[in-house]
Design brief:
Elements: H1 2-7, H2 10-29, H3 32-59, E1 62-63, E2 66-67, H4 68-88, H5 95-101, H6 114-120, H7 127-144, H8 151-177, H9 186-194, H10 196-199, H11 208-217, H12 225-232, H13 239-265
Antiparallel strand pairs: 1-2
Helix pairs in contact: 3-4, 3-7, 4-7, 4-8, 8-9, 8-12, 8-13, 12-13
Length: 271
C-alpha cells in the first residue's frame, strides 16, 4: 500500500482534494446562519485589532521608528499569511481528540497519504472573511505609504506571503503532531495560535531575548516582519529576509515529517 501511495501524483491529489473539500463546504453551507455569524465575528475581531492600532498611534506618532501605516501593513500581511493555516489545516484542532479516542485509526487504512486525507476533510471557509479584510488592509496601507505598484512588488508580496504562510502552517503542524507523544498537548496548539498576535508587530520593538526567541525558537518574526522588509525597507534587506523562503520550506517539511512519523507509529489504542 505504501508503494501505491508514493505513486500518486499531484493531479490525483488535486482531484481528490477538491472532491473532499467540496463535500465539506456543502455540509457547512447547509447551516448558513452559523457561517454568516462566524464570519461576522471574525471580521469584528480583526476590526478590533485595527482600532487598537488607531488608539495606540493616537498617543505615539511611531513605535521604535515604525509608523502607523507600516505596522498596519504588517497587520494586513499577517492576516493574509495565516489564512492558509486557518482554511487548510483547521482539522488539526481535532487531531488530539481523534488520537485519544482511537478514531484516528480509520485514516491509516486508505491507499492515500494520511496527512493529506486527514487535513483535506475540513476546510474552514470562514477564513475568506479574514483574507478579504487582510487584503483590504494591505491595499489601504500601501496606498498611504505611497508604495508604487510594479510587477516586482507583486512578486515580492506573493513570495513573502507564501513564505510567511509556510512558517505558520509548520508551527501549527508540529504543535498538533505533539498529541501522538504528549497526552496533554492542547496547550502547545493553543500557543501556536496565540503566536499570530505577535506576528503583526515588527520584531525590533521587543527586547533582545524576545527578538531572539521570535526569530530562532518560535519563528513569529517570519510570519510578517522579515518577508515585509523586502517591500517596506527595500534598501536595507537583512539576510534573514533573503533566506526566509528556503527556511520556511524546510521548516514546513520537518513539521510534515514529524506529523507523519506520529501517524505511522499510531496503533489505534487511544488513551
Amino acid at each position: 500500500m505504501e508503494q501505491a501511495v508514493r505513486r500518486r501524483g499531484l493531479g490525483f491529489y488535486t482531484k481528490i482534494y477538491f472532491k473532499i473539500v467540496g463535500q465539506d463546504i456543502k455540509s457547512k453551507m447547509s447551516y448558513r446562519a452559523d457561517f454568516i455569524i462566524s464570519t461576522i465575528g471574525m471580521i469584528a475581531t480583526n476590526i478590533a485589532g485595527f482600532v487598537t492600532f488607531l488608539i495606540m498611534f493616537g498617543k505615539f506618532p511611531s513605535i521604535n521608528g515604525w509608523s502607523y501605516y507600516e505596522i498596519l501593513f504588517l497587520y494586513g500581511f499577517s492576516l493574509v499569511s495565516i489564512t492558509p493555516t486557518q482554511c487548510l489545516l483547521d482539522n488539526n484542532w481535532s487531531l488530539r481528540r481523534y488520537v485519544y479516542d482511537g478514531d484516528f485509526i480509520k485514516y491509516c487504512f486508505r491507499p492515500i497519504n494520511v496527512w493529506f486525507y486527514y487535513i483535506s476533510e475540513v476546510f474552514d471557509v470562514k477564513g475568506f472573511g479574514q483574507l478579504a479584510f487582510g487584503i483590504g488592509t494591505l491595499i489601504y496601507a500601501s496606498i498611504k505609504l505611497a508604495i508604487p505598484l510594479t510587477f516586482l512588488l507583486v512578486v515580492k508580496i506573493v513570495i513573502g506571503l507564501v513564505t510567511a504562510s509556510l512558517f505558520m502552517m509548520a508551527l501549527q503542524n508540529a504543535a498538533a503532531a505533539s498529541c501522538f507523544w504528549i497526552q496533554n498537548s492542547f496547550w502547545l496548539l493553543d500557543i501556536s495560535l496565540k503566536m499570530k498576535d505577535y506576528a503583526k508587530y515588527p520584531v525590533t520593538i521587543f527586547n533582545k531575548v524576545f527578538k531572539f526567541a521570535f526569530t530562532f525558537i518560535l519563528p513569529v518574526a517570519f510570519m510578517a516582519y522579515y518577508p515585509s522588509l523586502a517591500i517596506l525597507r527595500p534598501d536595507n534587506i537583512p539576510i534573514l529576509t533573503w533566506i526566509s523562503p528556503l527556511f520556511g520550506i524546510v521548516l514546513f517539511w520537518l513539521s510534515y515529517k514529524l506529523w507523519m512519523k506520529g501517524a505511522t507509529k499510531y496503533d489505534g489504542s487511544g488513551s
